[in-house]
Amino acid sequence: MENMLHGAPTTTTPTSLPGCFVFPPDQLVPATTAAVSLPVVDMSRSRDEVRRAILDAGKELGFFEVVNHGVPEQLMRDMEAVGAEFFGMPAADKAGFYSEDVNIPNRLYSGTIYETGGEQYWRDCLRLAYDFPAGDHVKDWPDQPQRLREIAGEYVVKARGVGMELLHLVCEAIGLRPHYFEGGISGGDVVLHVNHYPTCPDPSATLGLPPHCDRNLITVLLPGAVHGLEVAYNGDWIKVEPGPGALVVNFGQQLEVVTNGMLKSIEHRVTTSSELARTSVATFIMPAGDCLIGPAEEFVGEDNPPLYRTLTFAEFKRTYNVVKLGASINLARDLKNAQKKI
């Protein structure tokens, strides 16, 4: 567990849950008892089958898992291992990367700093930005563990490739021009979140991440072996149990805007465990800040008016930050309402 004392993280192991982590019971509605498997998109199938599977899964649940995706199994395991190794290093070795400044692209931050007060979430995160295709940001990544730069650099390129191929297939499935998601709309930094959820004294009273929708275009998640992801479905929460070797994919809010609500960005959250720490790795494909994003012309017309405002991604992020400042557990709902045209 990371804790901030005099500006630097130090290691502590709380035996009880500090009060600022505790949510009101009505904000911690438990998921259904059984874990469920997400719809599976097998990318080795015919292109037509894969397109239909993506569209069906996207409309039904907004989340799906992909198999035979081309990311080597060993690379996935190495990425999980090097992430866990980073968070296992002594606090002093990580202190130089620690920052609460959201404008720093590569940084370590922690939701487990409870001296500062306010509502906290039981998660630590190493945020790494990759300026595709050059990769110049890699030199600013931590140089320990020894292979972190090499493994994370290779992994983020592969994961982005999966996301972009899925976006091409989405275009074919819904009638967008083939290269709609090339250029500025996918031209921002690729952002890697190496998430670490330490063992928690009372998982029933807190969350690793609150309900939210991803603000980007599409997310590719390496979920790790320990369960924790939960997805909103039909007024309930369902526990996600990914299959072996699968990556979990969900649509971000910008894809919902482009399709004028046809494809949804779905709320999800992360729970914690008292027995096992969890490490996951999320790859976010982000638009460039000056990219203007609104409903595509293919999805608006006299009988189908635009549901969302057209904004640059930088303007959207400012809206996101304003909403987040006053957010409750309804962050995802409040953010969507802020961007809706009506």
UniProtKB/TrEMBL annotation:
Keyword field contains Metal-binding: yes
Residue spans crossing the bilayer: none
Domain of life where this protein originates: Eukaryota
Recorded coiled-coil stretches: none
Keywords per UniProt: Dioxygenase, Iron, Metal-binding, Oxidoreductase
Single GO molecular function: metal ion binding
Keyword Oxidoreductase: yes
Domain (Fe2OG dioxygenase): residue spans on this chain: 187-287
Cross-referenced Pfam families: 2OG-FeII_Oxy, DIOX_N
Family: Belongs to the iron/ascorbate-dependent oxidoreductase family.
Protein name: 2'-deoxymugineic-acid 2'-dioxygenase
UniProt organism field: Dichanthelium oligosanthes
